[in-house]
């Protein structure tokens, strides 16, 4: 644990890929992440995300779970199955409570973080910085 | 059939009716009896004395002795005065001498009484003629010995009175004795036998035979009447005929008749009423002959009738035996038929199998249920019509039964002849022979209907489950769809507020704050509605697991401490050892969080919050007490209902959705528990909730209280 007086070092300039099917959410998260001094790119679905991930390296992928065509879970499984991408840090963004089985599946996939939408900016910033450090 | 024949034979013999005579019950009948006895006795005596040649008081023909003996045997000793009086009278009228008449009366009476007593005592009484040995005894006791008394007393008194010369004593005594003995042997049996049965059953055949008999007798008598010797031995065949054909009564009657015939013939051959000693001698010889004939006739007829009776009895017992056998056979047959009908008509398939599993017999239910005929099943192994998947079940069951185990029924499938299968409930039991399992029977009940119902219930359950899943999915989707638009609003609003896009003016800041606060509130509302709906749709049941409630409480208290410290509120927790219960841990945590959140929210600075958990009366009771503003009496019940918020609450700005306590109530109630509040306005509130412990009531908490202070 960090001491009370230790100022959390602000990680700056990290590359983050945000994947969400909602354009407004994509924009908002991008803005938020950029306000923290990170670089952000967006993908509107899993296929686009995979394409981008194939081209560039990211420090973190922020992944929505409920997306049409390819869900966040499926995308994560694909990433973890890829020999090049398998060590990619991934965090989930989700709106709903997860059922027990759903949680168990996610536990097996071991995302680095799990953000409940709508996010509280303060909390989000703290946790995101911790991951990126 | 032999049986019918023997039955006919028995019917032919029939059970003979009897009409027995005894001492009468009414006085009139008694007087009549005495009168009849007296006159018969008296005239028989007078008639006898008319043959007295050797001495006026001693006759070779002396029926009164027989009458007296028979009457004393049949009517009892009480009738003796009749004979005393009779004897006295006919002697007195003969000799005119009172003392000798009294003595002879005593002798005659004594003779009858002694004879009757002996026969009663030693020869079966009035039934003496039913058995040859008793007849022999009768002959000796009543026929030979008893007359000695009469003869001795009578002759002695006569001699003593000077009415007879002493020199003639032996001759008179002998005549007296022979006459009396003959009377005892001829007349007494006749009276006793007829008094034993007066009923006469005559049919045409019998009458015809009697006529033939009498005709033959009369012809014989006429032909040989001149030769008494020839007549005497020619009567023997008639006695035998009578003994064989007319029974004891017929024979006794015939012998009596014969005695008179011989008497008549003897008289007529001698020249009537000649009074001389040789005549007396002839009469004596005739009397002895009659006595012998009587004994022979009685004995032979007795043996014949006894033989007859024995045959009858044998036939009867044989018939009874046959009837019994027939009865038993028909009983067995009936039982068999009943069981057969049960077997044939039973709605369940019943099989009897040998120990190797081969079917010995099977009832027609098999055809109705599975289409196989009993004929084609017999000799087959039962497993041949069992669905292959179930064969092992049936074989194991059978093996268990052969070991003598009583196994519960099992459900198996029988193959239908027309294809497919039918569900049956199969039960098998061993059949023991001499304590060892020799075979087994099985009962197989068609449970198609039961299975259908079961499937229906399962289907219904499946549909309900699907509905539930659909509902959950709908809820999840609705919640997702409702919350998604809130996300960018909140992010953007907060970004505006934290100055990421430049400082806002005061009114601008206030406006954005209002937007953000209300969006957050809206988000909370969605969460709560989602919760409440999910709890009610029993989604909570899926989350139930064995839970350590004390751990849940401790964690929640720990989480709340930071927030409480900000308001300088102290939280104290006292948690006793609690049993593990089946609960949804996250939901109980939610209840705790809600109650603690409220407590902190409504307690002013420097207040106190006390959390306690213990086992009480079979439940876990958790208590959250604060020193806050309290709740008005009116509100205490209502706060647990949807969207209700206490009016007294001055902190409406901080208030939640109004669903928090309603959610708590739902969660606790879904656990089978209760939630309630005690409060004093201005002093604080204490919230309680209980969770039942399964079987908790049987063993009250005896654990030592172990307070854990988490301060």
Query: For the residues shown, what is the average pLDDT of chain B?
Result: 85
Quaternary state of the chains: heterodimer
What gross morphology of chain B would you assign? Answer: rod-shaped
Physical arrangement of strands within the biggest beta sheet of chain A: 2-1-3-4-5
Low-confidence stretches of chain A: 1-8
Main β-sheet description of chain A: 5 strands, parallel
Amino-to-carboxy terminus distance of chain B: 111 Å
Radius of gyration of chain B: 63 Å
Overall spatial form of chain A: globular
Number of helices in the DSSP assignment of chain A: 5
- Please work out how many helical segments of chain B DSSP would assign: 21
Helix percent of chain A reads 40-55%
Mean pLDDT of chain A, as a whole number?
A: 82
Overview in brief:
By secondary structure, chain A is an alpha/beta fold.
Describe the protein's architecture and organization:
The complex is a heterodimer of chains A (133) and B (711). With 133 residues, chain A is an alpha/beta fold. Chain A contains 5 helices and 5 strands; from the N terminus they run E-H-E-H-E-H-E-H-E-H. Chain A has helices spanning 23-35, 46-55, 72-81, 100-109, 121-132; strands at residues 15-19, 39-43, 60-64, 90-94, 113-116. In chain A, strands 2-1-3-4-5 form a 5-stranded parallel beta sheet, sandwiched between helices. Mean pLDDT of chain A is 82; it is low at 1-8. In chain B, helix 4 (80-95) runs antiparallel to helix 5, helix 6 packs antiparallel against helix 7 and helix 7 (169-196) runs parallel beside helix 11 (277-345).
């Amino acid at each position: 644990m960090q001491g009370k007086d230790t100022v959390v070092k602000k990680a700056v300039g990290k590359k983050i890929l945000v994947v969400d099917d909602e354009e407004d959410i994509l924009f908002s998260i991008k803005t938020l992440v950029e306000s923290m001094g990170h670089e952000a790119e967006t993908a509107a679905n899993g296929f686009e995300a995979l394409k981008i991930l194939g081209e560039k390296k990211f420090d973190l992928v922020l992944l929505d779970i409920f997306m049409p065509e390819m869900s966040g879970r499926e995308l994560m499984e694909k990433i973890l199955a890829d020999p090049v991408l398998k060590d990619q840090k991934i965090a989930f963004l989700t709106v709903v409570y997860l059922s027990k089985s759903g949680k168990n599946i996610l536990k097996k996939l071991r995302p680095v973080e799990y953000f409940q939408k709508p996010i509280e900016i303060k909390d989000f910033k703290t946790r995101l910085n911790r991951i990126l450090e | 059939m032999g049986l019918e024949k023997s039955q006919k034979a028995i019917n032919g013999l029939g059970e003979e009716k009897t009409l027995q005579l005894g001492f009468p019950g009414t006085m009139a009948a008694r007087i009549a009896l005495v009168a009849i006895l007296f006159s018969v006795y008296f005239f028989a005596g007078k008639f006898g004395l008319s043959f007295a040649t050797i001495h006026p008081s001693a006759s070779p023909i002396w029926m009164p002795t027989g009458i007296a003996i028979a009457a004393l045997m049949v009517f009892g000793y009480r009738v003796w005065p009749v004979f005393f009086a009779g004897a006295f009278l006919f002697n007195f009228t003969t000799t005119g001498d009172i003392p000798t008449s009294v003595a002879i009366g005593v002798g005659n009476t004594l003779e009858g009484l002694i004879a009757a007593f002996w026969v009663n005592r030693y020869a079966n009484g009035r039934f003496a003629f039913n058995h040859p040995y008793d007849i022999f005894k009768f002959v000796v006791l009543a026929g030979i010995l008893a007359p000695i008394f009469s003869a001795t007393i009578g002759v002695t008194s006569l001699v003593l009175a000077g009415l007879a010369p002493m020199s003639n004593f032996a001759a008179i005594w002998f005549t007296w004795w022979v006459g009396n003995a003959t009377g005892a042997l001829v007349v007494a049996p006749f009276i006793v036998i007829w008094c034993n049965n007066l009923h006469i059953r005559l049919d045409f055949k019998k009458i015809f035979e009697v006529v033939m008999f009498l005709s033959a007798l009369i012809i014989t008598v006429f032909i040989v009447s001149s030769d008494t010797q020839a007549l005497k031995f020619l009567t023997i065949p008639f006695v035998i005929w009578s003994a064989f054909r007319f029974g004891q009564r017929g024979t006794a009657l015939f012998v009596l008749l014969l005695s008179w015939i011989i008497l008549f013939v003897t008289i007529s051959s001698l020249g009537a009423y000649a009074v001389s000693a040789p005549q007396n001698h002839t009469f004596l010889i005739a009397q002895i002959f009659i006595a012998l004939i009587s004994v022979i006739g009685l004995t032979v007829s007795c043996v014949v009738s006894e033989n007859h009776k024995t045959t009858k009895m044998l036939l009867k017992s044989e018939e009874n035996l046959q009837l019994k056998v027939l009865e038993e056979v028909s009983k067995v047959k009936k039982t068999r038929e009943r069981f057969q009908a049960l077997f044939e008509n039973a709605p369940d398939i019943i099989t009897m199998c040998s120990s190797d599993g081969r079917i010995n017999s099977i009832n027609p239910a098999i055809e109705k249920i599975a289409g196989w005929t009993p004929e084609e099943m017999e000799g087959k192994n039962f497993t041949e019509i069992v669905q292959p998947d179930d064969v092992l079940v049936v074989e194991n069951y059978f093996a268990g039964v052969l070991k003598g185990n009583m196994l519960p029924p099992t459900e198996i499938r029988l193959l239908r002849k027309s294809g497919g299968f039918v569900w049956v409930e199969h039960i098998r039991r061993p059949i023991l022979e001499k304590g060892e399992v020799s075979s087994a029977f099985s009962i197989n009940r068609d449970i198609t209907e039961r299975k259908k119902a079961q499937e229906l219930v399962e289907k219904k359950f499946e549909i309900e489950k699907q509905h539930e899943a659909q509902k959950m999915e709908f809820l999840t989707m609705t919640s997702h769809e409702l919350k998604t638009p809130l996300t960018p609003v909140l992010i953007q609003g907060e970004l505006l507020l934290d100055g990421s896009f430049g400082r806002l003016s005061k009114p601008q800041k206030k406006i954005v704050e209002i937007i953000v606060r209300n969006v957050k509130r809206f988000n909370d509302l969605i969460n709560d509605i989602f919760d409440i709906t999910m709890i009610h749709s029993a989604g909570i049941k899926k989350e139930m697991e064995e839970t350590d409630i004390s751990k849940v409480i401790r964690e929640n208290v720990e989480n709340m401490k930071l927030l409480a410290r900000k308001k300088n509120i102290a939280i104290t927790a006292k948690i006793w050892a609690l049993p593990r219960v089946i609960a949804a841990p996250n939901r109980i945590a939610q209840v705790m969080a809600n109650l603690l959140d409220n407590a902190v929210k409504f307690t002013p600075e420097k207040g106190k919050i006390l959390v306690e958990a213990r086992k009480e009366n079979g439940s876990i009771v958790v208590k959250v007490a604060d020193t806050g503003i309290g709740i008005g009496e009116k509100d205490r019940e209502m706060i647990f209902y949807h969207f209700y918020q206490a009016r007294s609450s001055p902190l409406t700005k901080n208030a939640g959705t109004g669903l928090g306590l309603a959610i708590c109530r739902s969660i606790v109630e879904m656990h089978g528990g209760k939630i309630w509040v005690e409060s004093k306005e201005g002093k604080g509130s204490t919230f309680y909730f209980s969770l039942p412990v399964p079987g908790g009531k049987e063993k009250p908490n005896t654990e030592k209280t172990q307070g854990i202070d988490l301060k």
